[in-house]
Structures are given as structure tokens and as C-alpha cells.
Write a structure and sequence with these properties.
- This protein is mostly helical and 161 residues long.
- The chain folds into 2 domains: 72 residues, no CATH class; 71 residues, no CATH class.
- 72% of the residues lie in helices and 0% in strands.
- The chain has 9 helices and no strands.
- Helix 1 runs antiparallel to helix 2.
- The chain is flat and about 65 Å long.
Length: 161
């Protein structure tokens, strides 16, 4: 058992060192560095130990290398899904407070409103001003879908001040 803890600790250390290199890559991406990080991923996730469960997890991770290394082709992608998880937490907290909705239309309206509010928050826009803009038909703000696309491609968003 002690040997397993040591093997796990060593692998974790190597993993977090690699993750740190990915973070640096995102700040200053280049093709040669992307290739180097891809090769290093293959080396790291080809590791075998005498710890069966760890070896299985390492192999499963290596099998997903295409999805996990998309950041090397698209550095604008996040390295983690914390933003997605935070969105799910908001929904759960809302359910806990409001004890759910009473109809399918109510659920749809609540989901739409929460989506608008969370998307505005992620893009630094006042959700109140955005909704007011749509209600009054002034359309000073671009569609949220456009903001999401721009952010995904790394382009600067519209001036929404």
C-alpha cells in the first residue's frame, strides 16, 4: 500500500508539472511547443506502474488524448470545466431556494432567464441592462450568441458600454 501512495504521489507531481506547462502554452502558443507538449503527453500517459488502478486510469486518460489536447490546436479553450460546473451549481441553488417551478412553461422561462443572466455575467454585461435593451427594442447589445462565438475565437467583443 505504501508503494502505491508513493507511485500516485509521483504521478500526480508529474501531472501537475505538465498542467503548468499547458497553462504557459495558452499564454504564448506556438506550433513547436504544441508538438513538444503532445509528445510529453504521450510519454506521461504511457507510464506504467505496479499499481493496477493507477495504470488503468492513466490508460483511460491516454485514450482520450484527442479531446484532452484540443487546447494545443485551440489555445482559447479552457483547460478545465469549472465554468460549466459553476453554471450547474447556480441551477441547483435556485431549485433549492425556489422549490422548483409549477409548470413546464415556468421551467422554460426560469431556465431562459438563468441562462441570460449567467451568460451576461460571464461577458461582463449587466443582465438588467441587457434585458432592458431587449424589452425597449434599442438593441445596443449584440445577441449573446455572437458574444459567445467571439469569445470562443479569441476576438474582442463588441463595445457594450
Amino acid at each position: 500500500m505504501l508503494i502505491h501512495k508513493e507511485q500516485l504521489a509521483l504521478f500526480r507531481q508529474q501531472y501537475w508539472q505538465y498542467y503548468g506547462k499547458l497553462l504557459k502554452f495558452k499564454k504564448n502558443p506556438s506550433e513547436p511547443l504544441a508538438q513538444s507538449l503532445s509528445d510529453e503527453f504521450d510519454d506521461l500517459f504511457s507510464t506504467t506502474t505496479n499499481y493496477y488502478d493507477l495504470d488503468q486510469r492513466i490508460a483511460k486518460t491516454k485514450a482520450k488524448n484527442e479531446e484532452l489536447l484540443l487546447v494545443l490546436k485551440h489555445p482559447e479553450l479552457p483547460l478545465h470545466n469549472n465554468l460549466s460546473e459553476n453554471g450547474a451549481r447556480v441551477q441547483k441553488r435556485r431549485e433549492d431556494v425556489s422549490l422548483h417551478t409549477k409548470s413546464a412553461k415556468g421551467t422554460k422561462a426560469k431556465d431562459t432567464m438563468m441562462s441570460i443572466v449567467e451568460t451576461c455575467k460571464k461577458h461582463g454585461i449587466s443582465s438588467y441592462k441587457f434585458i432592458e435593451d431587449r424589452v425597449h427594442g434599442t438593441f445596443r447589445f449584440p445577441p449573446l450568441a455572437d458574444l459567445i462565438r467571439l469569445k470562443a475565437t479569441g476576438q474582442k467583443p463588441y463595445d457594450t458600454s
